[in-house]
Design brief:
The protein is an alpha+beta fold and about 425 residues long. The chain is built from six helices and 21 strands. The strands form five sheets. It has a five-stranded mixed beta sheet. Strands 4, 5, 9, 10 and 11 form a five-stranded antiparallel beta sheet that branches. A five-stranded mixed beta sheet has the order 14-21-20-16-17, covered by helices on one side.
Length: about 425
């Protein structure tokens, strides 16, 4: 038996012993907010790594920001934001027909005639049509989520129906405030069918006004933004000010520039969070990470470590490599995210009355995973992680192309001395 095969057998045995020994109670202890109390039940090396995992929900002020604009709209002075409608007191939304490819609507909503929707009107709609759901916000061209939150708003369709559309409505496009400069407008679009109907058990497209139970800050796109559950961040535009109903038959997103695929939904993929860069010979190696759970769901996270330079030839996706299953961690008892009074919002889609997810891992969010690797001999190694979705497709399949969202298999180097 060569050293690589021996390692794989030792890894399989050690991982099995660890998680069988952990048991249900121990497993529950390793989720966010409940890690410390029963840390003694875990292997010490892994307990410490799991203790440091990020919370499931991201505090609103900890989201990564990839906003566009010169200057960034959220950086404007309070006086300027009041002037241009970027406060709850002054916000207005116009819903009109496209002048070039008009849809027939009876009651456009415009500022000129006083019929534009204001924030008080939005809150009236929210009294009977509130929607909350968990979503990871990810940029199409960045291999790291910006943050995960509970997004709250009202379905976009509730506003569209108020314009009384009649015919020639095939698409809706929308954009937000960008410095009164037409060249800075950032626009996204959706087929009208996606806005009017929630297929495949998806939450609705919403006009969002809260994140983790708190009104949106200017940095997060407040006072109102769009959130499209299954989409990358460019579809969930900030500082919403205009919705345009059109007979246009194709996407007209600003993000088409740059050769981007604007119709690709969230992908499922894995990444590491904690991996030692250097370990001693025969020292167990704790590894933690997260998986973005895309539209195709998540059934497994797998890991594979090998001496550098021993990867299988002519196999760019490493389909013949001896992958091993990591442990997908269970739902947390404390979700984090700076929720008001640390209470989970009631009536959140995908959760029961007690705040427990109905399925796990949850699509369109994330899940943490962990593994304790056995000690290795001296050398340089490469660790990789990947996902297997609910259809059995291994990352980076079924959509490996970079311009439709990140899916590349991560490589992490470590040295054993």
């Amino acid at each position: 038996m060569n050293r690589h095969d021996q390692f794989l057998r030792e890894h399989e045995a050690l991982t099995r012993r660890f998680f069988l020994g952990l048991g249900v109670a121990g497993t529950a202890a390793i989720v966010a907010g409940t890690r410390t109390a029963q840390a003694s039940e875990l292997a010490p090396e892994l307990a410490d790594a799991i203790e440091k995992l990020e919370s499931f929900l991201t505090p609103p002020d900890k989201f990564r920001d990839v906003s566009r604009g010169k200057p960034l709209p959220h950086s404007l002075s309070e006086e300027k934001r009041v002037e241009v409608g970027l406060t709850r007191e002054t916000w207005k939304l116009e819903v009109t027909s496209d002048t070039e490819q008009p849809a027939r609507i009876k009651k456009p909503m415009t500022t000129a005639d006083g019929s534009a929707l204001d924030f008080a009107g939005l809150m009236q709609i929210a009294e009977t049509h509130p929607v909350r759901f968990a979503k990871v916000m990810t940029c199409l061209n960045i291999g790291c989520p910006l943050g995960t939150g509970i997004w709250e708003g009202v379905p976009m369709r509730e506003i569209i129906w108020r314009t009384q559309p009649v015919e020639n409505l095939r698409r809706v496009f929308y954009y937000g405030y960008h410095n009164d400069d037409p060249k800075q407008i950032f626009r996204s679009s959706l087929p009208i069918g996606r806005v009017l109907e929630d297929t495949y058990d998806l939450p609705p497209v919403i006009l969002c006004y809260k994140l983790n139970g708190q009104f949106l800050s200017p940095e997060r796109g407040g006072p109102v933004r769009v959130v499209v559950p299954e989409a990358y961040g460019f579809k969930s535009i900030k500082w919403l000010s205009q919705i345009v109903l059109t007979n246009l038959a194709y996407a007209n997103d600003t993000y088409i520039d740059g050769n981007n695929d604007v119709d690709s939904p969230l992908k499922t993929w894995a990444s590491t969070l904690s991996v030692p860069k250097e370990v001693a010979v025969n020292q167990p190696i704790p590894v933690t990470g997260y998986a973005q759970v895309g539209i195709s769901g998540l059934s497994k996270v797998q890991i594979w470590i090998c001496p550098k330079g021993t990867e299988p030839a002519n196999d760019p996706n490493f389909t013949t490599a001896p992958w091993s299953d990591a442990q997908i961690l269970p739902p947390p008892k404390i979700w984090g995210g700076s929720l008001p009074e640390d209470k989970f919002p009631q009536n959140t889609l995908g959760f029961d009355a007690d705040g427990h997810p109905k399925t796990w891992p949850m699509r369109l969010s994330k899940a943490h995973w962990a593994a304790l690797l056995p000690g290795l001999q001296t050398g340089e190694y490469t660790l990789r992680s990947r996902t297997i979705d609910e259809k059995g497709a291994a990352q980076p399949m079924p959509r490996p192309f970079r311009k439709s969202g990140h899916a590349a298999i991560e490589q992490v180097s470590l040295v054993v001395k």
